[in-house]
Write a structure and sequence with these properties.
Length: 340
């Protein structure tokens, strides 16, 4: 497929930066737009080093209509891959207006500018969180929407806005991708997840215990109805997830129609299994304590992965061991910066 001009909002973030590389590898010409609230500026230089040419990055907020307008006027984009959003569940409970403002306000601003520039191809970052506590595991895309917190609700609202938009005007072709739990880092060990604060998520937390930056892992509950009592998640290697975006874009251009798919492996691992795998990969001691359940946690999230295979030809290639090994190579290497 011929290279396309793509705008990648949030392209300096964890999933965004890996997606930049997947799109560049697929031959696309990609411009990043990021406000760097949750990403480091040095990511852009590191991406340039990996691809061996300069990378264009616009420093702007996705709610800034004038900046988007200027980017589109100059860029001539044929499609947008939209990551720019806030994503911390507990913060969304404390600051719901920020979440609606950035995640919904940002989406609305973007859609208006896209429409004005006759650009109607969009890949949207959604999340398994839209399923709340699902009735069925593995969870198919047909499962009901259930919001558990403002963050989850912004993803549901985003999908609904996009559904009504495509229903009103068939020129729109939108791919909504519901991510399960991304983990791991790029094979170059030059980019990866690099949270500025103490991480909320399991993988980056374990990584920082492995480096010694944090002392002990807290396992949130071992009394769930799961094989070892700890929470089970469908971890997906971030490079596999990134490739899913390239396939989604190809499909939008090929078919002119939208799609909605889960991106996961279809297989779950418990917290204790992840700790054991990370221990093997890092050869470090990973002390943990079993503590109370974390409020709002779901016992099991596993994707039904069949639809993504059927619609996009998407199949994950990398194992949990590869997620741990690449995470460790990144976090113990020279390019991650640690908690600031
Ligand atoms: N966990 C721990 N200790 C920690 C962190 C997590 O035991 O320090 C456990 C959790 O209880 C859960 C599992 O590890 O069982 C995974 O937790 P994460 O915080 O890594 O991920 P979540 O599944 O809770 O949430 C993530 C994203 C959400 C997204 C969701 C979709 O943070 O934004 O995946 O599956 F909605």
């Amino acid at each position: 497929m011929a290279g396309r001009r793509i705008l990648l909002t949030g392209g300096a973030g964890y999933i965004g930066s890996h997606t930049f590389l997947a799109l560049a590898e697929a031959g696309h010409d990609v411009v990043i737009l990021d406000n760097f609230v949750n990403a480091r500026r040095s990511v852009v230089d590191r991406l340039a080093q990996i691809v061996g040419r300069p990378v264009e990055a616009i420093d702007a907020d996705v709610r800034d209509a004038e900046a988007l307008e200027a980017a589109f006027r100059k860029g001539g984009f044929e499609a947008v891959v939209h990551f720019a959003a806030l994503k911390a569940v507990s913060e969304s409970v404390e600051k719901p207006l920020d979440y609606f403002d950035v995640n919904i306000g940002g989406l609305m601003t973007l859609l208006r500018v896209m429409e004005a520039h006759d650009c109607r191809r969009l890949v949207f970052s959604s999340s398994a969180t839209v399923y709340g506590v699902p009735d069925e595991t593995p969870t198919p895309e047909t499962a009901d929407f259930r919001a558990m917190n403002p963050y989850g609700h912004t993803k549901i609202m985003g999908e609904q806005i996009l559904n009504w938009l495509s229903a009103s005007d068939p020129r729109w072709a939108i791919g909504a991708l519901r991510y399960f739990n991304p983990a791991g880092a790029h094979g170059s060990a030059m980019i990866g997840e690099d949270p500025r604060d103490i991480p909320n998520n399991l993988f980056p937390f374990i990584a920082k215990v492995a480096t010694g930056e944090l002392s002990r892992i807290r396992v949130f509950g071992n009394d769930y109805d799961t094989p070892d009592g700890t929470g089970v998640r469908d971890y997906i290697h971030v490079e596999d997830l990134a490739r899913g975006h390239a396939l989604s874009l190809d499909k939008l251009f090929e078919s002119g129609e939208g799609h909605l798919v889960n991106l996961g492996t279809g297989r779950g691992y418990s917290v204790l299994e992840v700790i054991a795998a990370y221990k093997r990969a890092s050869n470090r001691d990973l002390p943990f304590d079993i503590v109370d359940r974390r409020p709002g946690d779901v016992p099991i999230y596993v994707a039904s992965a069949g639809k993504a295979a059927e619609v996009l030809g998407f199949r994950t290639e990398r194992t949990l061991d590869e997620m741990c090994a690449s995470s460790w190579a990144w976090i113990s290497g020279p390019h991650s910066e640690g908690t600031e």
